[in-house]
């Protein structure tokens, strides 16, 4: 029963606890230790007790002057800190694993007799990441051994950014699915990525292969650091970039042209008007549905047919997004789908009025009104030409998708699509046939010259043979994944967690404030990783207690002085030790310059 009693009931007033060194004899010389000092009571907060006052007696050896502290106290709370290691872990897991926001955590902790402000939640969250990062770094040799037992690692690299935020760049092992290292950089330039790749290489050895997107900086840095290592580009990224080159300009023009006609607002307005005219309990609705299913009219009352049918057609047009499969442009072309639905609905209305409703305009006013709303946009010459050109090119693009067996039109996997589990040689043969077909016609070859160039340029990086690797169980063959989705999914997860905590869709602010090592929390769900970083400790709190407090303080200072808070150009400028002399020279040495005169005036 006592275990379930809250600390606030057990200790209505914060108790004072005394802590002493675990020995009173010097282990080096055998001398009796003397009291150096007894500290004033300091508030300490742990999950088990809540707040209490800690008094510590510090001893010293009179011969070698070595100081002895209470290990028990310093296993509970960081030296000089207020909140215990168990509080740091509780807050960290709530923030980064369970995606609670600061206020939710503050309320939950108060219910456990741990009173903490929202600002302190943020502070302890940063501290949690720093402790985790230090434990990760100290565990690198064992992590390297783990990957070696599995046959090595396949390195996936990618970054994410938004707006003017820095780029959070990660390296992840495909086989173990562990985040190996992370960094925050202004951009994916080669000179910024080379040191990061070199660090991964030094820490974990050479990977068996690499998988990444088509960024020039990444490709150049990989070539410089990982010479001779099999290097592949993500099939999904390859298709997406190729498709955008082929379709995006015309697709964007179509989208802008459609917007000029304001057809969507007009249709929504018409839909709202019709909805007010239709009685939801009207029997005609069910009768029309039965008529459509049977192919013959199931009603003798045609009074509501124009209203209901017109309303249904408008809603059908607005269902155009259902044709998309979640891949995004250029795989999905929703604005083209919308335009084609408009045209189908317009043709249908024209046929209905021509055959059945000729001369009966008054009774069938809804048909005529919506027909006029469609008319201008569906008959626009520029839109028709754009739509036709896009469809011709999209057919070629989709033919390549089918050959590569990834993000195929009939798939419902969306951006999580890893491609069909088909033999890579089979895929290579199909892409070879596609390329021959594309180049077999002079006009087609001219139209799709850039596509051909892209296929030829990246051919060697598209098709990976299974890689032989030596493991504790003998030689096994590993097929590198055809996509970088393992990292893409990871970044999407980070963004979802960020949105859940902050309640905002923007990631720019989050990425600016996020510590670069934050993605390491993803490794905590891996049992083998946990066993390695715990290093014999039963939990994270006890593992963190074994990390040198000075290292943590140093990391916290560096995090607080994060250079991202300074403009990049200024960061370079302030490194100059002669900055004050140069400013003085600039403003005061030329007293006759117009600028100086203006400043003095």
Q: Please, could you describe this protein's structure?
A:
This protein has 601 residues and is an alpha/beta fold. The protein has a domain at 271-463. It contains 26 helices and 12 strands. The chain has helices spanning 7-10, 71-76, 85-96, 102-110, 118-138, 140-149, 190-204, 216-225, 235-261, 263-277, 283-294, 305-317, 334-355, 365-378, 381-404, 424-439, 442-447, 449-458, 485-502, 508-513, 527-534, 540-545, 549-560, 568-573, 579-588, 594-600; strands at residues 16-19, 34-38, 42-46, 50-60, 67-68, 154-160, 167-173, 179-185, 209-212, 231-233, 467-471, 474-478. Strands 1, 2, 3, 4 and 5 form a 5-stranded mixed sheet that branches. Strand 3 and strand 4 form a beta hairpin. Helix 12 packs parallel to helix 14 (365-378) and helix 13 (334-355) crosses helix 14. The chain is globular, with a radius of gyration of 34 Å.
Which helices and strands occur, and which strands form pairs?
Layout: H1 7-10, E1 16-19, E2 34-38, E3 42-46, E4 50-60, E5 67-68, H2 71-76, H3 85-96, H4 102-110, H5 118-138, H6 140-149, E6 154-160, E7 167-173, E8 179-185, H7 190-204, E9 209-212, H8 216-225, E10 231-233, H9 235-261, H10 263-277, H11 283-294, H12 305-317, H13 334-355, H14 365-378, H15 381-404, H16 424-439, H17 442-447, H18 449-458, E11 467-471, E12 474-478, H19 485-502, H20 508-513, H21 527-534, H22 540-545, H23 549-560, H24 568-573, H25 579-588, H26 594-600
Parallel strand pairs: 1-4, 6-9, 9-10
Antiparallel strand pairs: 2-4, 3-4, 4-5, 6-7, 7-8, 11-12
Helix pairs in contact: 3-5, 4-5, 5-23, 7-8, 9-15, 10-12, 10-14, 12-13, 12-14, 13-14, 15-16
